Amino acid sequence: MQLSVAVRAIALMAIAAAPAARCVAAKLMDLQHTRIQEPRPANLPSDAQLEKGGAVIGKIDIDIRNIFDESDPRENVWLFRIADRLHIRTRRSTIKAQLLFASGDRYDARKLAETERNLRALPYVYDARVVPVRYRDGKVEVKVVTKDVWTLSPGISFSRAGGTNNSSVSIADSNILGRGKTLQFEHGRNVDRSSNTVEWADPNVFGSRWMDAVAYANSSDGKRRELKIARPFYALDAPWSVTIAAKQYDRSVARYSLGNIADQLIDDEASYEVSGGISSGLQNGWTRRWLAGMRYDRNLFAPAPSMPVLAGPLPADRTLAYPFVGFDILQDDYKKTADLNQIGRTEDLYFGAEVGAEVGISNAAFGAGGEAIMLAAHARKGFQLPDQQELFLTSTFASRVEHGRARNLIASGNADYYWRWRTDWVLYAAFAGTVTDALDADAQLTIGGDNGLRGYPLRYESGTSRALFTVEQRVFTDWYPFRLARVGGAVFADVGRTWGRGVVGSSDPGLLQDLGFGLRLGNTRTGLGNVVHVDLAFPVNAPPGISRVQLLVQTQQSF
Hints:
This protein is mainly β. Among the domains are: 1-30 and 328-559, Porin; 34-148, Ubiquitin-like (UB roll). 10% of the residues lie in helices and 54% in strands. It is built from seven helices and 27 strands. The two termini are 27 Å apart.
């Protein structure tokens, strides 16, 4: 009852503000949204005129700005000046390697916009702006402006969700010597294991479009080794891709019942992939990609020595080896905004349609343990609705067919709705649903404090299908304490449950509900995640044994 009243109150408040919303322009449109203020000169011909006139790109000016703006008196203080001096600014060659255009190319405004989006996605870039600034004698001068964040991060981190603490001590840099490379050493502890990890990633090997990544972890329950070399589809016009990947991972896997570990398994996992794709590039607003490759996935199971008696069945060993083919079709349709999922950052929303699918044949001839048809598909679409409203739909499907029967079938769908009914208030609502069939015995479908039901322990309920509904009133403020973090807040309600009997446990607590509120800190100066969450969540009509207050402290990529 308490939850339904809260949901109604939030909805009525938003409905009452509808007339005002229709009178409120977007809080910040393209230029005002961009935290880097680099306006396009008013006397410059339009993009359509430049393209129709056959203009080519001339000089490219790359302007890389430091963490703090010392021309602003509020940021020209001794501590910020020291940070700027100690920080190694991103090199021009690092930014140049990300550009989708070069001097002498025909002017194409779409490629400038896509370059800007790609730059903003980099962990060492806070914001980016790519804009034509001068046109003379058939040549367009383009200015590329980026703003750095602090990427060297020695320190201690702590987070809490679902009544469980995670902590780590690490030193990491996602922009070594300004070259865009990542190196991390970490000692971490979470509910599953303690680990010592070293990771390396280079998104542009020798300034090329090739990338590599290596990871090694020595954990309390085993070791993890990963290697990846790839040339991805780095742009909508990219003509081909290649991926070579290998992973070996032996670890314990816990299965849960009512938030408690019911049993543990040892999973010795190995997976390898060689794949590639081709594309004719962007044509009439659409990109079509054709994919093919070979995968090998092996999982060997045993009871954990610490828990030899299992609460559920021991999973059967699996070896899948299969060639596959697939496709991915996506539409070029993006929009810039701000103060939706981030605080004080430019956001790139995808409103296009995307659909993709894969099919593979696992057979003993390739080293598989049996025959299976491997299936996977995904789709997404964004909608711009009247009165500052947006809706985003996504869905995924994966399964394998053995002896004419679907195994480990998992189908999920998500809907995310936003309504900016006041300039600095956004009503957010989301629904997520998952159905499964014949799940592998090592896989659990759970719901709890670690995946959206904030008032409950992590992995609390388990079953064969799941639903979660969230409504959240987000508030964005102009408060910018110490010029380090932007401040926001949220009031929220969550409702969710699972259905069906999972692989372990037999309880069915039914519908779970919570109410809560929290503080949001938008990270504007470092590359360590974008939004810090500090939430208090209160379960409603909770079963016995559930704490009446849950404290969650997390760093996440969104609000």
